[in-house]
Design a protein that fits this description.
Blueprint: H1 3-12, E1 16-19, H2 34-42, H3 53-63, H4 70-76, E2 81-92, E3 97-101, E4 112-113, H5 116-121, E5 129-140, E6 149-157, H6 166-173, H7 178-188, H8 199-206, H9 210-213, E7 219-223, H10 229-235, E8 240-248, H11 250-253, E9 255-256, E10 261-262, E11 270-281, H12 284-297, E12 299-302, E13 305-308, E14 312-318, H13 343-346, E15 351-354, E16 369-372, H14 374-384, H15 389-397, E17 398-399, H16 406-423, H17 435-460, E18 474-475
Parallel strand pairs: 4-6, 7-14, 7-15, 8-11, 11-14
Antiparallel strand pairs: 1-16, 2-3, 2-5, 5-6, 9-10, 12-13, 17-18
Helix pairs in contact: 2-14, 7-8, 15-16, 16-17
Protein name: TIGR02688 family protein
Organism: Bacteroides clarus
Pfam family, one: BrxL_N
Length: 476
């Protein structure tokens, strides 16, 4: 156990968990994200961090079976099955019913139904989109001319930490120095802090958490393969939806005109488009137009439907590097799909993550220590999104340069606010903020990340205002 691990255990107590990669062997064959694994381990572990393996295996066999394809046959035989699982909800307007599907178990939308009384009990949860929850399934045999179907007779959202006390979390943060807190956050992402070469590399890695914690923060990350992009965005939070390549439509992201149902960006904090080079849009021009409006204003119109959300967007892609470990070209836009090779759209992304500064993930980097429970950590990030104190501090701390470009200004403030929440969540007013730390850890990196976007826009429109240097942002 490291010093920081021991301190995390002492300070956060029940919100801490011991990460031992060997414990994950119990999950082999079950594709579960970290926030679910941590919940299960935390409920099956003793005070010394020892896993009650047999009890956990019994729970998994009953509620997350190794052979998911057997679920349908068991239901047909009359079994009533309770599962902890991911599923997708869809409102069928034509048939006036709510349906669900569990692709991993071969349960299709057309074969299911959620009774109205279950929907009425959970009006804010059982809406279109991806969900995690504890569900009870029964099979309703054919009656008269009606087909048989699988019914979700009971539902409980997977939200073990819905009573999270942010003030208690802030008090815990006060017990760590800034350098210690950086290591706490690295370990919360399930990596060993000492495996990183220094603070610069750690902070670049932590930049991936910025869109988790700030509403409608839009970023781009290009990195070599094997730096852990997919893992971070696919495992740390149930509020993030990861799309890994393939075709992406307006209907999937924003609004499905045929079903008259909003897309996945309505009910998530962040959508990550992974393997961006392999992603294609069903209608590039339509998607470009919709994205311009949404990324700028948080709303867009589709067939007279006004879609509004606070969901952020991040593009994740690979980039070839030279022998010295830096991009072979200063024109990073070459690595993006055609839809994003337009300065007007690119300018609407707030910042850029330089993934080539990050190490290739190795087995030695997997955490073997005490850290924050991922479910707890992801809930903290989710709840901090709506905390308004930090934007106020940013507005009070930054002197607006004369004639500053409005998009530059908004982007810098939004990124600085995200950094403030992430690194200094205990600071709730300007008087308590160390202004030197604010400049070093919040304002300076915010300007840098925005400036990369500006330079990439300048590569497209060399004669435009993008060729002008970023304004100098100073402290008040």
């Amino acid at each position: 156990m490291s010093e920081i691990g021991d301190k995390i255990r002492q300070v956060f107590r029940e919100s801490a968990v011991y990460k031992n990669p060997a414990n994950n062997e119990v999950f082999v064959g079950r594709n579960l994200p970290s926030f679910v694994k941590d919940y299960l381990i935390a409920t099956h572990i003793d005070q010394n961090g020892k896993l009650r393996r047999d009890a956990l295996v019994r729970f998994l066999d009953e509620h997350i079976p190794l052979n998911p394809n057997a679920i349908r046959s068991r239901l047909m035989q009359g079994d009533v099955i309770t599962l902890l699982t991911r599923f997708e909800i869809s409102t069928n307007i034509a048939k006036n019913k709510t349906q669900f599907q569990i692709p991993e178990m071969g349960i299709k939308m057309a074969d299911t139904e959620i009774p109205q009384y279950v929907v009425d009990q959970n009006p804010d949860d059982l809406v279109d989109g991806e969900k995690w929850g504890i569900i009870k399934l029964v099979y309703i045999p054919p009656q008269d001319k009606e087909r048989g179907y699988i019914e979700m007779s009971k539902y409980k959202p997977f939200r073990p930490l819905e009573r999270l006390d942010l003030n208690s979390f802030r008090e815990c943060r006060k017990k760590f120095t800034t350098d210690e807190w950086i290591d706490v956050l690295i370990s919360a992402m399930e990596y060993t802090p000492s495996a990183f070469s220094g603070k610069t590399q750690k902070l670049e890695f932590l930049a991936r958490l910025l869109p988790f914690i700030e509403p409608r923060l839009n970023l781009i990350e290009l990195a070599p393969k094997g730096t852990g992009k997919s893992y971070v965005f696919g495992n740390l939070s149930k509020f993030v939806w990861l799309i890994g390549g393939g075709k992406v439509s307006r209907a999937k992201l924003f609004y499905d005109k045929s079903r008259k149902a909003p897309g996945i960006m309505l009910h998530h904090d962040l959508v990550a488009l992974d393997e961006i080079q392999s992603i294609t849009f069903t209608d590039t021009m339509e998607m470009r137009s919709i994205l311009k409006n949404y990324l700028e204003y948080g709303k867009t119109n589709v067939d007279n439907y006004e879609f509004m959300s606070e969901c952020g967007l991040i593009l994740l892609g690979n980039i070839p590097l030279s022998e010295d470990g830096f991009p072979m070209s200063d024109n990073y836009v070459e690595e993006l799909p055609e839809a994003f090779k337009e300065s007007a759209l690119l300018d609407r992304f707030h910042g850029f993550i330089e993934g080539w500064l990050l190490p290739r993930i190795t087995n030695d980097m997997a955490l073997r220590d005490w850290t924050l429970n991922v479910e707890f950590f992801s809930e903290v990030l989710h709840q901090l999104r709506t905390a308004t104190e930090y934007a106020t501090i940013v507005n009070q701390s930054i002197a607006v340069p004369e004639g500053a470009d409005m998009r530059h200004l908004k982007a810098v403030k939004r990124i600085a606010s995200a950094y403030l929440k992430l690194l200094f969540p205990h600071v709730l007013n300007k008087e308590d903020m160390d202004i030197a730390e604010f400049y070093t850890y919040c304002l300076k990196p915010a300007v840098h990340r925005r400036d990369i976007i500006r330079r990439q826009c300048a590569n497209i429109d060399r004669e435009s205002s993008f060729s002008k240097p970023m304004p100098i942002f100073e402290l008040k």
